[in-house]
Amino acid sequence: LALDIVRPAFPLDKAQYVRVDLTLPNVDATLAELLADHKVDTFVHGAFLSQPTHNSAWAHELEEIGSMHVINACAEAQVAKFVLSSTTMVYGARPHNPNFLSEEHELHGQPSSRYVTDRVGAETLALRFQKEHPERVVTSLRVAATLGPTVKNYVTRFFSRPIAPVMMGYDPLLQFVHEQDVVDAHKLALDGEFRGAYNIAGDGVLPYSTVLAMMGKFPLPVPHFLARSLAGALWATQVVDAPPTFLNFLRYLCVEDGKKARDEMGFWPRYDIKSTIREFLGLSERGDYSKSDDDAASTGA
Fold first, then answer.
1. Long-range contacts of 18-27, Cβ-Cβ distance < 8 Å, separation of 24 or more
2. pTM higher than 0.85, yes or no?
3. What is the pLDDT of residue 33?
4. What b-and-e string marks burial along 221-230, b requiring 16 or more CB atoms within 10 Å of the CB?
5. Which of 14, 191, 199, 250 is deepest in the core (most CB within 10 A)?
6. Residue of 47, 58, 49, 48 lying closest to 24 (CA atoms)
């Protein structure tokens, strides 16, 4: 079953589309009946926005309240496996973050960002679902910033502009994952039984300044206090796609450790960070997964 508010643009040769709106108050009962009728045993929950929105009330209804509806429906229909598509951002970009964040680290999120807070809420609901139903398999995939030739999200939009802001005095390490590796990680979660959270990231990290140089972007150094005020004004007038709180990700580390996914899931990314960037820029042939010899080494992906 393909559940969404709009039909996918690609052909569904092996799936049936059903329109489901997670913002409706009685959608959990409708969804539970649908899952039971089709004897669904595995549910992948990825109904999250690809970028922040100014309609924060609606986003909250869709992402956190919608996740509650989905989990209630899965519990009622006795779905055996539940896979949540989460994000690295739930850890939050903070000045005291370690070099690599493990799955055991607290989910601080970004308190002033509804976009991140709702993701933390969805993870909290999934964790409670696992505790209340230990016989079920609940997997949360905390996916790093995703790049690739076809994906469209706030990250690809940010790096599609010719000029990129740089917080004066800061040059944090960045981490990406290729869209194909994200698909592979979800396939592993579907095929196996992995309870708990798993960090899904590509191989290697690079300083923000190096990423901008590789992408041919013009860095624009800005003091943080000025950048935050300017970003707030641009966000309010809908000129930019991300609220000012996202500037913290250009100041502080938010890089995850992928050891658990390697050891337990057998997830080994096909793409390292440089080949992911080249794919995003259209400089590599599709299907070329080779890593360059001088790529930045990292034990965290």
1. 22/47, 22/61, 22/62, 22/65, 22/66, 22/67, 22/69, 22/70, 23/58, 23/61, 23/62, 23/65, 23/66, 27/66, 27/69, 27/73
2. yes
3. 96
4. ebebeebbee
5. 199
6. 58
Beta carbons of 93 and 254 less than 8 angstroms apart: yes
Percent of the chain scoring above 90 in pLDDT: 73
Task: Quickly count: other Cβ atoms within 10 Å of residue 236's Cβ.
Answer: 12
Place of tokens 């933390």: 120
Whether 247 and 227 have beta carbons less than 8 Å apart is answered as yes
Residue 284 has pLDDT above 70, yes or no: no
CB under 8 Å to 194, separation ≥6 — which residues? 137, 139, 188, 264, 265
User: Rounded distance, CA 33 to CA 157, Å?
Assistant: 39
Per the document, the length of the chain is 301
Q: Is the pLDDT of residue 285 over 60?
A: no
CB-based contacts of 139: which residues, under 8 Å, 6+ apart? Answer: 81, 82, 83, 84, 189, 194, 195, 196, 197, 198
- Given a contact cutoff of 8 angstroms between Cβ atoms, the answer to whether 198 and 253 are in contact is no
| Coil, helix or strand at residue 201 | coil
CA 206 to chain CA centroid, nearest Å: 19
Residue 8 CA to its chain's centroid (Å): 20
CA distances from 82 to 5, 139, 160, 229, 301 (A): 20, 6, 34, 41, 24
What is the spatial distance between Cα 113 and Cα 64, in angstroms, rounded to a whole number?
13
| Residue 300 CB neighbour total at 10 angstroms | 21
Contact (CB, 8 A) for 288 and 271 = no
3-class secondary-structure state, position 18: strand
CB 144 within 8 A of CB 200: yes
